[in-house]
Amino acid sequence: MILSGEEIRARLGKEICISPFCEDSLNSNSYNLTLHNELLVYEEVVLDVKEPNRFRRLQIPEEGLILSPGQLYLARTVEYTETRDLVPMIQGRSSLARLGLFVHCDSGFGDVGFCGHWTMELSAVQPIRIYGGIRICQIAYHEVVGVVREYRNGKYQHNCDIQPSLMYKELGYTRQYEQLQLDFDSLASSCQEQADYTYSTAGNSVGRGTPAQTV
Prior knowledge:
This protein is of the alpha+beta class. The protein has one domain: Deoxyuridine triphosphatase (dUTPase) (Deoxyuridine 5'-Triphosphate Nucleotidohydrolase, Chain A). Helix content is 18%, strand content 29%. It contains four helices and eleven strands. The protein has helices at residues 5-10, 94-97, 167-170, 184-208; strands at 16-19, 31-34, 38-42, 55-59, 65-67, 73-83, 86-92, 101-102, 115-124, 128-130, 135-143. A four-stranded antiparallel sheet has the order 1-6-9-8, with no helix packed on it. The longest helix is centred in the C-terminal third of the chain and has 25 residues, at 184-208. It is globular. Residues 205-215 have low confidence and may be disordered.
């Protein structure tokens, strides 16, 4: 059984916590959650389920950020939620699906007792511009039958940030994630040197060989 919007409101402060809560985001049987202005992308050519994979962060500026097809973007909700004695479920919004944006690939069901921000897996069918603060997904609540054993010490519990996959912990690896740090000054200098070399080589080639064509 899925809770109605009115029942979600009635259970706030009891089985359900949504912070911040906005009345306008309450639907007939769900609640709209909003997108934080930071994303995470992996920096590996091949991702390894047994190893921590390097990543870097992207900020969504006020003018928006264009997502590219074929790239996985991890995001999180602005809202912090807690759920007791209910099963929370995250789903994308149909308005965004009609624009080719997939919000939560394959992990919609949460655990009874989960506390934290929700990490989402964004992927786009075609280039699409997104903005921080948009209503990105909806959370619904299912009643559960039987004895409940709450999710208390899971690897994603009480998170306050975007959570990359921690599956490697299930497989016995304990090394932590590395956020990839790029030296942009050195990178820019290297690119300029390469450009200068290419330009000078092309110029010398024209000078020594066939004259440049004119139209």
